[in-house]
């Protein structure tokens, strides 16, 4: 394609022109009616991210329904059924920017029957906001969301204690809730989490974007200020380099007669030309000959980059294979121990068969054992259950039809998770976190 | 070779990853090309994903017959330069054979009629994955879309029963007769797309830039008057204004905005300071609060 003739040298501050970090992804969670949509609407409104036409629509709708305030939740709830019931059914993605940062918020349902959608929204998040209604304190859904944030190892979690205006901005209330969550955190296996507690009123705007005049006892930062300070690079854990091959590029043209490139995305660490690599599962050794991105070559490529790599030896590589550094090999295994979050109406039972998708690799999987159901209020486990129902979380063992190249999720997030697919319906029925290869 | 370190932007990497998954997981993918900035961006991403090989799927344009001439000319030239196959299917054919009925009245548009033509074409060619340039920031119902969005024979979207999409694992398993709509730039904002076009120096149709055009006002929006498809009342006075278009849909439902932005840098600036959302100028979205969701359930893109 020819270039445009209008060459310019002006700089802009868009996310795409910053050094590759894109947007910071935040998941919100909380119980029904905790005011998540209102909080997001408030964030948009106070950062002037709501365009005039959207704001007009909200004003008009609020008036139509006879509300005496602006119903910000109308900014996010997009499905007819959601508007009818006034609840959030599915994850909505909301985009806004301040002068310092661009954000994607995955606004996830609080309703218990949509927990799987919450996991969906939180799985790609670098930070999470758990909302609590100050009047009700910690409820079942709070436990569950807090648990899921820990299971997913989301590093930065904000506990937003909302509706402070309805409890007279009571510091005592805030401290009771804070204490309960800190006690939960002490029982969690994941110790690297940054917990921040913020008392706010989404409806009135206290501590969302502007500091509250009603809570002089709170000396911390506002929610937006906290989010602006987060750096995706600090939040993402560094781990060993993994390069799962998505597809092999062979142009077979005069010009590129012998080109054979492996296309994929680099996870965890970096790759350099000259690196000694092992091709898995065959365990053939080679070295990196070149790293391509479109029509350019690079000596080094950073984690998160979708590239095309060529090797110095003519080895047989295909989709699902993985390139890793010689002394950083994952486990090659046909059996797994995993924690699974079940997402289907049809329960999981031992001895059932599914497809497993681990990154870009597929195999068949049989559930060999259903060990426990883990109670999401941190109160323990149920041993040897007969089934795992929708929205339950448990420990299982799996047998695979072919070896997969895996890491434990707590060592390598990108290579430690998988999904299960029901072969009869093709639905994604569960998401698993590898504890250990067997 | 000089020491050069690469860090691809997260959005660009994500889109390339998705396009590669499509080619690996599906038999017959197609890129739905409208000639607008989003689908032009997709074409550039597809070039990058498979370089030095050519884009391994055809482009398909569902032509309402009401496109800006600038767009059609651009479409033909681009596909010729890239050496990719272009499939064109016309809404007019469905009107002629009676499978759809032309709307009448002052808001008549062929935008809704595209769905039928698209579904026919999917069936005709047996496409199992249709790549589109929809973005989640465009509209509330789209904010809920998955990246792989499964549709049945009728193109229907069941919004209450979407597959969970966790991490970046994309489940493309479907039954015969189903197809998947794929949205690689789901997570881009309008500003991201414009910044990318600027950074990559991608050529786009001239109607995106400010130009003098015969226009008239209706419902507070500016409409192009130099074509016959927009039904105009006698009292709607035609004046020449300096305008550009923010989206390139069907001429009958795409309004212009007043603008002096004659190049990309100025467009990016204007978008950043703008206070009306992109689809605010699309009359067909305003028909009812649930407009987009209804259309999507019926198989609209």
Automatic annotation (TrEMBL), chain A:
The keyword GTP-binding applies. SUPFAM superfamilies: EF-Tu/eEF-1alpha/eIF2-gamma C-terminal domain, P-loop containing nucleoside triphosphate hydrolases, Translation proteins. This is sulfate adenylyltransferase. Pfam families: GTP-eEF1A_C, GTP_EFTU. The keyword Lipid metabolism does not apply. Residues 21-237 form the Tr-type G domain. PANTHER family: TRANSLATION FACTOR. Its EC number is 2.7.7.4. Keywords: ATP-binding, GTP-binding, Nucleotide-binding, Nucleotidyltransferase, Transferase.
Automatic annotation (TrEMBL), chain B:
Its EC number is 2.7.7.4. The keyword Cell division does not apply. It comes from the Bacteria. Coiled coil: none annotated. Keywords: ATP-binding, Nucleotide-binding, Nucleotidyltransferase, Transferase. It comes from Polaribacter batillariae. Signal peptide: none annotated. The keyword Nucleotide-binding applies. Pfam families: PAPS_reduct. NCBIfam families: CysD (TIGR02039), PRK05253.1 (NF003587), PRK12563.1 (NF009214). It is an enzyme of class 2 (transferase). Transmembrane segments: none annotated. SUPFAM superfamilies: Adenine nucleotide alpha hydrolases-like. This is Sulfate adenylyltransferase subunit 2. GO terms for molecular function: sulfate adenylyltransferase (ATP) activity. Residues 29-255 form the Phosphoadenosine phosphosulphate reductase domain. Belongs to the PAPS reductase family. CysD subfamily.
């Amino acid at each position: 394609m020819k270039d445009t003739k209008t060459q310019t040298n002006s700089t802009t501050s868009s996310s795409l022109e910053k050094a590759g970090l894109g947007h910071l992804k935040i998941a919100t969670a909380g119980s029904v009616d905790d005011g998540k949509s209102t909080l997001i609407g408030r964030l948009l409104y106070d950062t002037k991210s709501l365009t005039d036409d959207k704001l007009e629509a909200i004003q008009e709708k609020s008036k139509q329904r006879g509300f005496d305030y602006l119903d910000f939740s109308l900014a996010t709830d997009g499905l007819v059924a959601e508007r009818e019931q006034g609840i959030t059914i599915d994850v909505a993605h909301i985009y806004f920017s301040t002068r310092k940062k661009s954000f994607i918020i995955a606004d996830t349902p609080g309703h218990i029957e949509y927990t799987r959608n919450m996991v969906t929204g939180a799985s790609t998040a670098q930070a999470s906001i758990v909302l609590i209604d100050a009047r009700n304190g910690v409820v079942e859904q709070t436990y569950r969301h807090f648990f899921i944030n820990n299971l997913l190892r989301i590093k930065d979690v904000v506990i937003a204690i909302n509706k402070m205006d309805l409890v007279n901005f009571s510091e005592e209330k805030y401290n009771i809730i804070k204490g309960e969550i800190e006690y939960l955190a002490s029982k969690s296996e994941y110790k690297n989490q940054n917990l921040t507690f913020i008392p706010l009123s989404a409806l009135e705007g206290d501590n969302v974007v502007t500091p509250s005049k009603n809570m002089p006892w709170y000396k911390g930062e506002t929610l937006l200020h906290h989010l602006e300070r987060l750096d995706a690079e600090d939040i993402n854990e560094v781990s060993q380099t993994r390069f799962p091959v998505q597809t092999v590029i062979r142009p077979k043209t005069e010009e590129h007669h012998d080109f054979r490139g492996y296309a994929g995305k680099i996870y965890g660490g970096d790759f350099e030309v000259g690196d000694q690599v092992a091709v898995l599962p065959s365990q053939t050794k080679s070295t990196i000959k070149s790293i391509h991105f479109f029509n350019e070559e690079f000596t080094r490529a950073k984690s998160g980059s979708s590239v095309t790599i060529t090797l110095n030896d003519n080895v047989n590589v295909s989709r699902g294979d993985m390139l890793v550094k010689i002394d950083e090999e994952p486990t090659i295994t046909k059996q797994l121990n995993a924690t699974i979050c079940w997402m289907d109406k049809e329960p999981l039972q031992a001895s059932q068969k599914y497809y497993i998708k681990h990154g870009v690799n597929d195999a068949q999987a049989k559930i060999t054992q259903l060990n426990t159901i883990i109670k999401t209020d941190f109160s323990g486990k149920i041993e040897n259950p007969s089934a795992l129902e929708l929205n339950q979380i448990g420990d299982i063992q799996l047998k695979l039809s072919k070896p997969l190249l895996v890491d434990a999720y707590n060592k390598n997030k990108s290579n430690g998770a998988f999904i299960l697919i029901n072969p009869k319906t093709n639905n994604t029925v569960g998401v698993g976190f590898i504890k250990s290869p067997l | 070779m000089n020491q050069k370190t690469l860090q691809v932007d997260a959005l660009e990497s994500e889109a390339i990853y998705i396009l590669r998954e499509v080619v690996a997981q599906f038999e017959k993918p197609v890129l739905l090309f409208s000639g607008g900035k989003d689908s032009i961006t997709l074409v550039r991403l597809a070039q990058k994903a498979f370089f030095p090989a050519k884009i391994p799927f055809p482009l398909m344009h569902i032509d309402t017959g009401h496109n800006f001439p600038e767009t059609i000319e651009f479409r033909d030239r681009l596909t010729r330069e890239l050496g990719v196959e272009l499939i064109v299917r016309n809404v007019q054919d469905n009107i002629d054979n009676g499978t759809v009925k032309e709307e009448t009245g002052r808001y008549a548009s062929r935008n809704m009629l595209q769905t039928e033509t698209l579904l026919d074409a999917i069936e005709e060619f047996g496409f199992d994955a249709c790549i589109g340039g929809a973005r989640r920031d465009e509209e509330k119902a789209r904010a809920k879309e998955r990246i792989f969005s499964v549709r049945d024979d009728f193109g229907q979207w069941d919004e209450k029963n979407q597959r969970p999409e966790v991490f970046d694992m994309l489940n493309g398993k479907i039954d015969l007769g189903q197809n998947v709509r794929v949205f690689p730039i789901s997570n881009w904002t309008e500003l991201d797309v414009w910044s990318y076009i600027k950074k990559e120096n991608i050529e786009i149709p001239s109607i995106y830039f400010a130009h003098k055009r015969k226009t008239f006002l209706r419902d507070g929006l500016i409409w192009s008057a130099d074509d016959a498809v927009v039904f105009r009342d006698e009292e709607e006075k035609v004046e020449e204004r300096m305008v550009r278009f923010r989206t390139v849909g069907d001429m009958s439902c795409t309004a212009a905005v007043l603008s002096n932005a004659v190049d990309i840098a100025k467009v990016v600036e204007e978008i950043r300071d703008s206070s009306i959302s992109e689809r605010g100028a699309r009359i067909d979205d305003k028909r009812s609060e649930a407009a987009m969701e209804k259309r999507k359930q019926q198989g609209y893109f």
